[in-house]
C-alpha cells in the first residue's frame, strides 16, 4: 500500500517552479553556480535578483488572492505573471 505522499513528487514545490514568473531568474542563478563551480560569492547578484522577484511574486499573489479573481481561477497564473512582469519592469 502506498501513501499519497509516495505518489507525489519528492519536492512538491519543484513541480511548480517552472510555472513561476521568476523561473528565468531561478535558472540564471543555477547556471551561474554551474559556471563558477558552486562559488556562491560570484553569483550573489543573481541571487539578489531572484530574491527580489520572489518578493514581488508573493506580493502580487497576495493581492490577487484577496481580489475577486481568487487563486483557484484558471486565469490566476496568467494574470499574476502579467502583473509581475509589469512590476519587475517598472522597478
Automatic annotation (TrEMBL):
This is CHCH domain-containing protein. It comes from Rhododendron griersonianum. The keyword RNA-binding does not apply. PROSITE patterns: CHCH (PS51808). Residues 22-56 form the CHCH domain. PANTHER family: COX19 FAMILY PROTEIN (CHCH MOTIF), CYTOCHROME C OXIDASE-ASSEMBLY FACTOR COX23, MITOCHONDRIAL. Pfam families: CHCH (PF06747). The keyword Membrane does not apply. Transmembrane segments: none annotated. Keywords: Disulfide bond.
Amino acid at each position: 500500500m502506498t501513501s499519497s505522499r509516495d505518489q507525489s513528487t519528492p519536492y512538491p514545490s519543484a513541480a511548480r517552479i517552472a510555472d513561476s514568473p521568476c523561473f528565468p531568474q531561478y535558472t540564471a542563478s543555477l547556471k551561474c553556480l554551474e559556471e563558477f563551480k558552486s562559488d556562491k560569492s560570484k553569483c550573489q547578484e543573481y541571487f539578489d535578483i531572484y530574491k527580489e522577484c520572489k518578493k514581488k511574486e508573493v506580493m502580487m499573489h497576495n493581492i490577487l488572492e484577496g481580489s475577486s479573481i481568487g487563486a483557484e481561477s484558471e486565469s490566476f497564473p496568467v494574470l499574476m505573471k502579467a502583473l509581475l512582469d509589469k512590476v519587475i519592469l517598472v522597478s
